[in-house]
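Side project, low priority. Logging it here so it doesn't get lost.
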Amino acid sequence: MPRAAPPGPPLGLSRAALLRRGLAAGGLLALAAAPAARAASGPAPADDDIGFLYVASIGALVTGEYYRRARRTSGLSRGGRRQLDAGRRATRDAGRRLAAVLQLDAVKARDFDVRFPPTAFASPRAAARLGARLQATRVGVGLAAARDAADPATRLLLAELLAGDVQLLTRLSAVDAVAAVPLPGPLSVEAAGRRFETYLAVSGVQPEENR
């Protein structure tokens, strides 16, 4: 897996401030769009940018399967199920946008089996906690990507996806009153990849037991 780009300048806002504002006020999107003269023809990722795109795609694959299974959790409220369905739709759209950029390098669902611990969906609270961990990982690597990606249009795409991931993280409270999740900081491609790979096995290969 390609290495993440080296750390860039600080975001200027604290992580708590960014998350409280939901990244919706445009602060991070504006950062991602700099310089102002960004590519009009769409993302043209540099070599290190591919790592961000690929791990974001892996995250969409794992989290999309989470949403599909979590909606069947016994005891879910109607509102909780609606939020999980909305999360699945948003994650599927994110996966498609990433695949359009990665093209031949796109992550293919048929190549992987997504496997969660047996108790992952034992209750709405268990399901919400797993979802929060997955979404926090997506937010963490998204923060790094929106800061460090070299190609302006790629950086903008990843920042737009990050804004959606922050919203999905906050909406998991509708599934259950989850205990406070530590605010994620920027997360490297390698660290995020290791977290997602906990839930992945190559199709047809017996995996080690997920921890």
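Brief comment: The first helix runs from residue 15 to 20.
Revisit when time allows.
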